[in-house]
Amino acid sequence: MKSVKIAQGIARALNIVVRSYSQVTEIVQSIDKHGGKAFLVGGAVRDLLLERVIKDLDIEVHGLDLQTLETILKKHGPVSSVGKAFGVLRLHGLDVDWSLPRVDAAGRKPNVSIDPHMELQQAFKRRDLTINAMGIDLVTLELIDPFDGLLDLKNGVLRAPDKELFVEDPLRLFRVMQFIGRFEMKPNDQLNEICASMDISSVSVERIEKEFEKLLLKSKRPSFGFAWLQKIGRLQDILPELHAVINISQDSTWHPEGEVFEHTKQSIDAAAIMSYKNNQEKLIVMLAVLCHDLGKVSTTEKVGGTWKSLGHSQEGVPFTRSMLKRITKNQNIVDTVCKLVRHHMAPTQLVGSKSRPAAYKRLAKKLAPHATITMLAKVSLADKRGRNPIKGKPLVKNFPAIEKFLSNAQNVKVHEKPEAPVLQGRDLLDIVKPGPQLGELLKKAYDFQIQKGIKDKDELRRLILEK
Description:
Blueprint: E1 3-5, H1 8-20, H2 24-33, E2 37-41, H3 43-49, E3 57-62, H4 66-74, E4 79-80, E5 88-91, E6 96-99, E7 102-104, E8 112-114, H5 120-125, E9 135-137, E10 142-144, H6 149-155, E11 157-158, H7 163-166, H8 172-183, E12 186-187, H9 189-197, H10 205-218, H11 223-231, H12 235-238, H13 240-243, H14 260-272, H15 279-291, H16 296-299, E13 301-303, E14 306-308, H17 312-324, H18 331-342, H19 346-352, H20 357-367, H21 373-385, H22 400-411, H23 436-452, H24 457-466
Parallel strand pairs: 3-6, 11-12
Antiparallel strand pairs: 1-10, 2-3, 2-9, 4-5, 5-6, 7-8, 9-10, 13-14
Helix pairs in contact: 8-10, 8-11, 11-14, 14-15, 14-21, 15-18, 15-21, 17-18, 19-22, 20-23, 21-22, 23-24
């Protein structure tokens, strides 16, 4: 078994991480005294070697049965048995998975066979990629690397430890996709061949959703993941709506980068490095940027020698809805992204036509409740930055029209939410009963409020009753 002592810097970083998890050191020592071996495994090892932040620990225990491990853990607090059938235990209040080596049969509901005495090489062989098939002995601080994962990590190569075992979990294709974007690594030829032909029809949308979220939220170059799907011939069956924009022409005056797929890749990379207030906002903006030009498939035509895509923002909504249903079950996200796609041309249109404040107020109302003008400005900025004639590299500059759009919205205080209605239903109950008529009156009142800039409740009530 290939093993090397980890570098002093890595060892210091590991000690800092382990010490930040209370009781881990004591538990590891207790496991060792009982004749077991505790190994840090998986993504934590990879991220440690990449000098990235480690957010959770996976510790695989060899040489002890599940009952003995549970007894050791119980000395330190209550033990959760939620994952016990899969050989996984957790201490309440401690974000660490303690697991035993196991064999999972293929299928949606696989039979699990726990084998505490499985050889290390066999246990690591079952992992998805060599860069995740390493372990660190938490007592000796030796790196166990039976498949040269460290070398692959240094060379930026994604490789399967075992091609037959790799295909047992078809989700792994999507994991490769997001690793390409997150770590900017390249699969070797064998892995490309495996992923090009493996059956992924059994993977649920819920599992796929998590991998796309990692690609969009954790990558600086998420376009690499989508480009790889295209390269191995899988984009068409995974995201056919996105595949359809390949080779859709654009007017070089406005789009010197070329066809729509190139523009989309540049735009999504531009959006990836923007600042967001939280992951939810980032995910919605990223998805909107990914989908913003899907409508060009049905609207692009040559008019007077120039390529035009009139109405593509509106036509893109059904394509967006169709594509997002393949990768998320969250209807709020789907609806919100569709609004951003529908209105992604509005920023430059409102600024270009020198629209009055009322137009910004109406737009904020249309985007509510989950999308905002600030988010729409980010989508529009990514759209503008995705127009670099140098392929594969988005622009990084700002655009005065987008800045003006956001400034105008901020001036009327609708950049984060729509203007609150002055009139409420209770203000009209003395003249109309609850029902459709009341709703229609309130809608008209809000239109008058925005159009005429009315802030006084009594004035607005008089006006709406007169009308």
